[in-house]
Design a protein that fits this description.
Layout (H helix, E strand, L loop, with lengths): L6 E3 L5 E3 L7 E7 L8 H12 L4 E7 L11 H12 L18 H9 L9 H13 L15 E4 L5 E5 L5 H11 L1
Parallel strand pairs: 3-4
Antiparallel strand pairs: 1-2, 3-5, 5-6
Helix pairs in contact: 1-5
Length: about 180
Amino acid sequence: MSFYDYSVTTPDGAEVSMADFKDKVVLVVNTATGCGFTPHYKDLEAMYEKFHEQGLEIVDVPCNQFAGQTPGSDEEIHEFCQLKYNTQFPQYKKSDVNGENALPLFKYLKSQKGFEGFGKGPKALAMSTMLKKIDSDYKNNPEIKWNFTKFVVNRNGEVVARFEPTTKMSEVEKCVASLI
């Protein structure tokens, strides 16, 4: 199977196929409204405004699996994103990204790009310290570690990069820009 064989669901229950994004650069991200990384929405929206007309799509999947940091309904999440960050890209139905009920799309993405670490710096150290308490073997599995993990898919449907939430958004933008 390829990236284009998967889909996500809108809050009103419509299925959106990734095949709708053929020939586009797609950034898939699991998000949260009450996380220390929630300000990434500002940079995601700026990137969307900068590159959307050149072929960037953002697939925003809210997820409440990480410390319950997305407690609201799909409608509340959408309202929060629009009011606080003026987002124009769509938010899809709140879903799991890990475990038995994980969206098949995220299972596929993780199979293509596993976890490679949090990088360096204070946020990376804090994430590593926290995750060691939750899962001492966290480094050795491809699971999503936290909110705002980002996957970049090129115009051919290939998963070319995975960025952990500790990665500077400027690095994510540099990757996206190189594919536009």
